[in-house]
Specification:
Blueprint (H helix, E strand, L loop, with lengths): L10 H8 L39 H7 L2 H9 L17 E5 L5 E4 L3 E2 L7 E2 L8 E6 L6 E6 L5 E6 L9 E4 L4 E5 L3
Antiparallel strand pairs: 1-2, 1-9, 3-4, 4-8, 5-6, 6-7, 7-8
Length: 182
């Protein structure tokens, strides 16, 4: 459900100012903004290794995922704010990559950012996410991708709450929620 104060704002403006704000300064040195890894031999640690997950072929992904999940995870699309599955989810549990199943974020680190997308202060396992510069939309943002599934998840910004000061602004379509009691 779209909040009434956002009904008159075009989705483009919400997108640009919600999960697409420009980075005015580099992110804090957390290990999250390292260059993207290109092979299993470059991966270090983490709870899932490249040998445990082989990304399905594109035609298999198209069958496995909804069209929105495919567009977001494989074509770097962004879902609409306030009209996605997890932006207002308050259940206890974890969020995993919809493609690989690798654990990404905990409900304990989720917060209300007001952007209309699920936002987190940190990943569960820093090794399960990677970032790269995203120069689309005439600005530089830090795109977040899953390390093993290479799914586009969203972007990370340096305007989040303590203790990290980070806001991982994620697309619900790239996530699957696993409830604590489920």
């Amino acid at each position: 459900m779209v909040h009434s104060k956002f009904r008159s704002i075009p989705a483009v403006l919400v997108f640009l100012f919600g999960c697409a704000q420009s980075q005015s300064a580099p992110l804090p040195a957390t290990g999250q903004n390292a260059p993207m890894m290109s092979s299993a031999s470059e991966s270090k640690g983490g709870s899932m290794s490249q040998q445990q997950f082989t990304k399905p072929a594109d035609d298999e992904l198209r069958k496995k995922l909804t069209s929105l999940q495919y567009d977001v995870t494989q074509k770097d699309a962004t879902e609409p704010p306030f009209r996605n599955e997890y932006w207002d989810n308050h259940e206890a549990g974890i969020y995993v990559d919809v493609v690989s199943g690798e654990p990404l974020f905990s409900s304990l680190d989720k917060f209300e950012s007001g952007t209309g997308w699920p936002s987190f202060t940190k990943p569960i396992e820093p090794e399960n996410v990677k970032t790269k510069a995203d120069r689309k939309l005439f600005m530089v943002r830090n795109e977040v991708r899953s390390a093993h599934g290479d799914s586009h998840l969203g972007h990370v910004f340096d305007d989040g709450p303590a203790p990290t000061g980070l806001r991982y602004c994620m697309n619900s379509a790239s996530l699957k929620f696993k409830p604590k009691d489920g």
